[in-house]
User: Fold this.
Amino acid sequence: MFDDEVKKRLKEETNDIAGLKDEVWNNINRELFPAETKRKRTNWVKGFAATLGTVAVAAIMLFVFLTGDFTDETQNDPVQNDPSKDDVTEGTNDPDKEDNDIGEDTEDNEPPLKDRFPHEKEVVIEMEGMEQPPIKVQLATNEELRYIIYFDKDRYQFTPGDEVDEITFAEELLEGYPEVGMEIQHFTDTTLEEVTKHVIKSLVHEGMDVTKEDVINWPIDAVMIQGDGDRDEGFRDAPVHRYYITEDENDSFFVFKQKYFTEAWEGHALRFDYMLESFEIVK
Assistant:
């Protein structure tokens, strides 16, 4: 029994010493390697903080989504539309169908000529070397032939036609005076030589003598051909027909025919030239 008691006491003392040894070594380790101990604690703290941060962000996003305070920024991105998922026309991102109505007046989605230029304006012309008071001119257009011209609305009127557009004197002439006006005609699939022959033949048919033929640059770049008539009995003055031939494009030409009489050079012929100066082909 004595031997057993001694063994028991030795075993207990040994366990106490082993525990004391571990405590001593731990104390020594903390004294000698304080940074290592701190680093282990710090890494644990950082890991815990990262985990906590992830959980917090997830919670915030969940809260925002549930409360509806979430803005879809992709709705302002013009490349986000998927044509396979909707019926939006390719190349557009605006569902407003009203925009499709813009410019439907013309094939090229452009407004008509009458809406692209002033309907009225004032111009100053010279007669007998002196400037005249400003006159009001009005816009006339031909959508098919794509031209505009301004005419003196107080003295003349514009009348469109199937083949010929006319600008005629608005007042009735005294008996015995030749016709006054200007015609606008368009010829296609032809040449300048053919149009010139046609004009000369027309003058001969009208009983006119061809008195002038020239290339001019005012009031328009053109070939000018003039025919003068005789002063027949009953006429107070001889009629004058002047043609201007100007090239359009693709073997086509505009022909302007001015009709007046010799005494009306300043009164009508010059006014027709100022109108013709405003002529413009709009493509």
Remarks:
- The mean pLDDT is 75.
- Helices lie at 2-32, 34-67, 192-205, 265-277.
- The domain at 113-281 is CATH 3.40.1000.10 (Protein Transport Mog1p; Chain A).
- The first helix runs from residue 2 to 32.
